[in-house]
Amino acid sequence: MPRSLSTTLSFWVSAGVVAHTLWTSAAPAMVYPLYAHEWNLTPTVTTAIFAIYPIVVVAILVLFGDLSDFIGRRTTMLLGLGSSIIGVFLFVIAPNVATLFVGRVFMGIGVGLSAGPSTAALQEFAGSGGVTKASSTTIIAQAIGFSCALIVGGFLVQYAPLPSRLTFMVLLVLLLGLFAVSWFLPENRRTNTGRWHPKIPGVQREIRTPFIASSIAVMTAYTHGVIITSLGAQIAKELVQSSNIFVNGSVLALFAISLGIAGLFASRLTGIKAVVWGSAASIIGMFFLAAAIAQHTLVFFIPATSISGVGYALMVYGGLAIINPVTPENVRGGVMSALYLFAYLFTGLLAVALGKVATEVSMAVAALIGAPVMIGLCAIVIALVVRLPRTPALQIKSLKSQRA
């Protein structure tokens, strides 16, 4: 084993760290109905198990968002992977719901520490002019993590022994392997001076306009996660009336599969066009979701998840393509963390709210509230990005002259 990995291998290992953030996030998705049945949990509790994760992610991003700009991407990603490993292990041995909450806390710490640095590392290991490669690889890595969580999880829950444990055992082994390989990443310590201290990640004034547009685009894309990973399995089982967990997981995984396919072609679009088309696709997906709930059929649920996946991919790609070129390298970790901060904060709060509605009213009402929320956010995103300058190269040149 070499002392440190090559730039090419480092790029793909960083992509693996990105993939782990979505796999870890969605890992319990297909197991929520089992927990609800075995421990007699209400939708409020199951969505709270989901929601504690993004809330912890937000707390970590607020306090440690720019940590990798000071101590390096490698060290910060290793800390994140170590925490994710602890969280997944707690799910493997969980004797009660309290242990699940603690496990989700550790998962949130792990993703909060590694999400920004891994995204920034992709940009840096991609080399000069690698904005497109880094952005599209981020999408594809997320798609792989998401789809594996749902397909592998659904298969193991439906057909394998230890249905509420084995999926986490598999993930634990993979995370241990990823941690071992990540140990050999080159340490790219930033040149920031001064002592690091916990603080909210800052965004320079000259990039705030594109940052606002890109962060709201990514936040809107991540809102899909509330419906797919928090409520999706229960929507499929209770509203669409499909009892096969593997089938439900495969249908939900169409979200991630279409996400990955769209990520392959997203590089043909500018950041602004990608966000606009992604918002439009998400709106269409929400109409199909409403139809699936009304008609209790997979015929509409399948296009709902597939089209929503395209929307997610294009919005995240577009958001990253808008902000990456204009972000100075020495603050990129903090800016990426700030971008994810808004996404996780909103999704955590929305998950709690929809879970409460599902408990007090019905799952159908909760899902039908989530759909118009998504549509409204998409409209806001379109209004913001169409006002951005359409010449990123000129933006970059202008920013460089301002910093000179």
What does this structure look like?
This protein is mainly alpha-helical and 404 residues long. The chain has one domain: MFS general substrate transporter like domains (Growth Hormone, Chain: A, Up-down Bundle), CATH 1.20.1250. The protein contains 16 helices and no strands. It has helices at 7-26, 32-38, 43-64, 68-71, 73-93, 97-125, 131-159, 166-182, 208-230, 232-239, 245-266, 271-295, 298-323, 332-360, 363-385, 392-403. α6 packs antiparallel against α7 (131-159), α7 packs antiparallel against α11 and α7 packs antiparallel against α13 (298-323). The N and C termini lie far apart (42 Å). The model is unreliable at 391-404 (pLDDT under 50).
Count of spatially separate domains: 1
> What global shape is seen?
globular
Query: What is the CATH domain class?
Result: Mainly Alpha
Give the integer mean of the pLDDT values.
Answer: 82
Q: Roughly how much helix do the residues carry, as a percent range?
A: over 70%
Radius of gyration: 20 Å
The proportion of strand residues reads under 5%
CATH topology: Growth Hormone, Chain: A
CATH-assigned homologous superfamily: MFS general substrate transporter like domains
Structural class by SSE content: mainly alpha
Any guess at the CATH architecture?
Up-down Bundle
User: Could you tell me how far the N terminus lies from the C terminus, measured between alpha carbons in angstroms?
Assistant: 42 Å
Give the biggest beta sheet.
none
